[in-house]
Amino acid sequence: MAEVVLQGVSKSYQGKPTVHAVDLAVADKEFMVLVGPSGCGKSTTLRMIAGLEDITAGRLLIDGRDVTHAEPQKRDIAMVFQSYALYPHMTAYRNMAFGLLKTSSLSKPEIDRRIREAAEILHITHLLERKPNVLSGGERQRVAIGRALVRQPKVFLFDEPLSNLDAKLRTHMRGELKRLHKELGLTVIYVTHDQIEAMTLGTRVAILSDGRLQQVGAPMDLYMRPQNTFVATFIGSPEMSLLRCAMKPNGSGSVVSHPAFTTHVPERADAGEILLGVRPEEVIVGPADGTALACGRVDRTELIGSEALAEIVVGADRLVARTPVTKVPPLGAEVGISFDMERVRVFDAASGRVLSRL
Amino acid sequence: MVTGPALRARVSEAGLAYLLLLPSLVFLATFTYWPILRSIYFSFHDVVLGSNKIYFLGFENYERLWTDKLFWKSLGNTVFYTLVTIPCAITVALLLAVALDSKLRGMTFYRSAFFYPVMIPSVAAGMVWVFLYAPGYGPINSAIAALGLPKVEWLYDARWALPAIIFMSIWKYAGYFMLILLAALQMIPADLHEAAKLDGVSAIDRLIHITVPLISPTLYFVIIIGLLHSYQIFDYVYVMTQGGPADATNVLTFYIYQNGFQYQDIGYASTLANVLLLFVGGLITLVALVFGRRVHYLGR
Ligand SMILES: Nc1ncnc2c1ncn2[C@@H]1O[C@H](COP(=O)(O)OP(=O)(O)OP(=O)(O)O)[C@@H](O)[C@H]1O
Ligand SMILES: [Mg+2]
């Protein structure tokens, strides 16, 4: 069992608040991803869990035990650093053995067995006698993971472990990490700024912005039901377009009016400014005739493999539409657009919060 | 093949390089190599300072070394001084550097405080310590008396004079070594220590197995520099004890000085200087053989 609970965990550097009262519960065997833009406090949060940074306020529980002020080694966690942090003067084998030799009561054969086993899993058996400087980035990464594995800790912490790898290797290692997590039943807290990495790896994803937790949920949940405009635009690529509209209650829902169109949404709220959130795949591009909701002009198109993206100017706003390659509208063309109204979301323009659907 | 103007350009480039090197070569030759050659020449002669008279002696000066008790004593003192001062100073410096390599407040102050002795001219430092060690009114003896221990005559006691000089030398060297080691410590990526900390590796184990190997090139450098400095010890002996009491602090350089400038025996002084040079050369080679291989250069 390994369960990590953050209760109002906060961090201030020299009185400057950096992480604001984060509440997060990571379940046993869960792969929790902390994601957010650079400088939002992901590393700080992870380092507080590791015990490398003091917790300014709040509580941290691992398996129900309060470890808020416990020394790092008392928390039974292992961390894989972005820089790998391998000891440069030790072989891969010694890197993995060092911590166990110095701190555990395990016998040498037992340590050896664990290292061979981890090496087997990570396919690095043939590299064990090499020093880090002759290993490639991906190999160093595996050794660093191996060093964490042999400890058999309750919780694994990863801080952007793949960001120094090239795109292909990154995809490969992502798959490996997923496999390890599943096969070995690890509890993982994983930091990244890459939302695609977050979405593909996490059983659940926690989104941070400016040191505040924005939303926690399964990847699909975050994609389909973002709680605010930050989450809505952070998750998904290309990002969701936000169209500024006025809203008036009408019947069971509301009427939404944009300079270029007027439509009806099921959400209800007091009259005011709202942002209509539309993902590229929710935009339907057609001929500019009466059947379309609004008209726009194609400003830019971009081929992305099997599909294309078209940037369309609608009134004062721009939105991105996803179209099949065979139906890319020509640049400058007037096109008609409609939305998949079942899926568009409505956000309060002032607070950025999503308006709930009735 | 290089032809015509290209060749000329290359030749003139090399010529320019030699031209620029010339002043320092002349300087080195005049003040280093020529004196070394002269001292080798002198060591086979009886030279009287101030006169042009010079008599060939063959190996007589070198034979004299074997029976010269004072030579062996001063050599022994030099070795003892070096082998105690340098390891102690480096150990103190390393511990200080590790302690100061933290992000706590006030560290800049401590760094300057520990470096301060380095900036004091050695003659001035010697005078200060003569006062500190003074048998009657010296603060060190006062402190010892306050602790209820018997007073020591320090620089006037043959048993304590050399240890007293060693102690002040450690005080003087440690700050210098500390600064160099501190710079090396700060090159070690913080996450290496963090990774070890997470593994529960103790501070002592981290010092021995991570810090020391990673600063080994600098440690090696400091050992060599320390040896080169310490065998030349002269100023403290000159200022504080004049080699006394009973030659307890007579070291090779001071003995050379005595022979050359007090007894005016340049031939024998040159012989001693050559022996010292050989001795130091041997010591450095030994250190290079023992430690040189173990140095780990960060292969990144
Ligand atoms: N030791 C420190 N002292 C003062 N401020 C710090 C310290 N460490 C981090 N910060 C600040 O705290 C904020 C969060 O830093 P953190 O390293 O957690 O960001 P991050 O989300 O990991 O970003 P990145 O994706 O770039 O790694 C940043 O604004 C950073 O400047
Ligand atoms: Mg970070």
From TrEMBL, chain A:
One of its GO terms (cellular component) is ATP-binding cassette (ABC) transporter complex, substrate-binding subunit-containing. Keywords: ATP-binding, Nucleotide-binding, Transport. SMART domains: AAA (SM00382). Gene3D superfamilies: 2.40.50.100, Nucleic acid-binding proteins (2.40.50.140), P-loop containing nucleotide triphosphate hydrolases (3.40.50.300). The keyword ATP-binding applies. Transmembrane segments: none annotated. It is a peripheral membrane protein. Residues 4-235 form the ABC transporter domain. It is found in: Cell inner membrane. Its main location: membrane. InterPro entries: AAA+_ATPase (IPR003593), ABC_transporter-like_ATP-bd (IPR003439), ABC_transporter-like_CS (IPR017871), ABC_transpr_MalK-like (IPR015855), ABC_transpr_MalK/UgpC-like (IPR047641), Mo/tungstate-bd_C_term_dom (IPR008995), NA-bd_OB-fold (IPR012340), P-loop_NTPase (IPR027417). GO terms for biological process: carbohydrate transport. GO terms for molecular function: ABC-type transporter activity; ATP binding; ATP hydrolysis activity. SUPFAM superfamilies: MOP-like, P-loop containing nucleoside triphosphate hydrolases. Belongs to the ABC transporter superfamily. NCBIfam families: PRK11650.1 (NF008653). This is ABC transporter ATP-binding protein.
